[in-house]
Design goal:
Blueprint: H1 2-23, E1 29-33, H2 40-56, E2 60-64, H3 71-78, E3 86-91, H4 92-101, H5 109-112, E4 113-128, H6 137-146, E5 152-155, H7 161-173, E6 178-181, H8 185-194, E7 199-203, H9 204-213, E8 217-221, E9 246-254, H10 259-273, H11 276-284, E10 288-289, H12 294-315
Parallel strand pairs: 1-2, 1-3, 5-6, 5-7
Antiparallel strand pairs: 3-9, 4-7, 4-8, 4-9, 4-10
Helix pairs in contact: 2-10, 4-12, 7-12
Length: 320
């Protein structure tokens, strides 16, 4: 008798997530952004939240929880109930890179999160001061071979994707530069324009005005295809380096988020990303729309984790 009751309880429990998901959502949803308000991730999240709320018939509230390179807010989602009412629009840092940079992380993205959908990606730009006689990426690499550890390349900070991309390029090309970390984009751009440093590797977003005006010379973008806003700047792959590197944004939920909720979110956000409004908003921040399936996002998390683990380990990069 007790065995039959136990089996019946298990069967009931198995059907509860599907039944619960069928009624979802019945109250507002929180979309955590693990970065400050006003940035590109926040702006994209607010567009997704507004349009998703209209589709679902419930308000989607953006909650900015910045700190620890995006780890703080993303960790909050990993600890939330798997009921579809707490999600995150996070980035490749917390979802792939950071666990190899920070010695103490309270969550593992591959274990503790449910992939929902990739939203967009921003490539890195490799640019130089026009005074440097380098018209192509190969010219810059040739200069680095001639003057090991003397060509100065700035990045927005130790452990940032700009820094990791520089290390990836150096590893691929077997060259060494003088890596100069800055505290953010603005001082870095000022110094490369002044000729204080020779080159920069950083997300294309902050470089676009200088590249489009000719104040800096773009040598390469690190995306798989050329960036639409800079059609004359070739990719690293076109110049002989397999150095693909992007910052990507994605929606994730807690571990064990019910499949029906994941499926509905994925379908609705794919529809949002297909609109001209969403694509224009992403383009405003130097990003291209992605979309796709949860499985594709999971694959990206796995492959980027493996790639950046090697780069971070080989370069011995750590953050506290």
């Amino acid at each position: 008798m007790k065995r039959r009751i136990a089996l019946a309880a298990l069967a009931l429990a198995a059907t509860m997530p599907a039944a619960f998901a069928a009624d979802w959502p019945v109250k507002p949803i929180t979309l955590i952004v693990p970065f400050p308000a006003g940035g590109s991730t926040d702006a994209v999240a607010r567009l997704v939240a507004q349009r998703l709320g209209e589709t679902l018939g419930q308000q989607v509230v953006v909650d900015n929880r910045a700190g620890a390179g995006g780890n703080l807010g993303t960790d909050a989602v990993s600890r939330a109930a798997a009921d579809g009412y707490t999600l995150a629009l996070s980035t490749s840092g917390p979802l792939a890179n950071n666990k190899f940079l920070y010695p103490k992380m309270s969550f593992d993205p591959l274990r503790d999160l449910t992939p929902v959908i990739a939203v967009g990606e921003i490539p890195m730009g490799i640019a130089v001061n026009p005074a440097l006689k380098a018209a192509t990426l190969q010219d810059l690499l040739k200069e680095m071979r001639a003057r090991p550890e003397q060509v100065s390349i700035g990045n927005p900070g130790n452990g940032t994707i700009g820094h990791l991309t520089t290390e990836l390029v150096e590893s691929q090309a077997q060259v060494r530069a003088m890596n100069v970390p800055y505290k953010g984009d603005a001082p870095l751009i000022v110094d490369v324009m002044a000729g204080t440093i020779d080159a920069v590797v950083m997300p294309i977003t902050a470089l676009l005005p200088q590249l489009q005006s000719g104040k800096l010379r773009g040598l390469a973008v690190t995306s798989r295809q050329r960036f639409a806003g800079l059609p004359n700047v070739p990719t690293t792959a076109e110049q002989g380096l397999q150095a693909e590197s992007t910052v990507w944004l994605a929606v994730v939920g807690p571990r064990n988020l019910p499949a029906p909720i994941v499926s509905r979110l994925n379908k609705d956000i794919n529809a949002i990303l297909a609109t001209p409004e969403a694509r224009a908003k992403l383009a405003q921040y130097g990003a291209s729309a992605l979309g796709g399936t949860p499985q594709q996002l999971n694959g990206r998390m796995v492959s980027d984790s493996a790639k950046w683990q090697k780069v971070i380990t080989d370069a011995r990069i750590t953050l506290e």
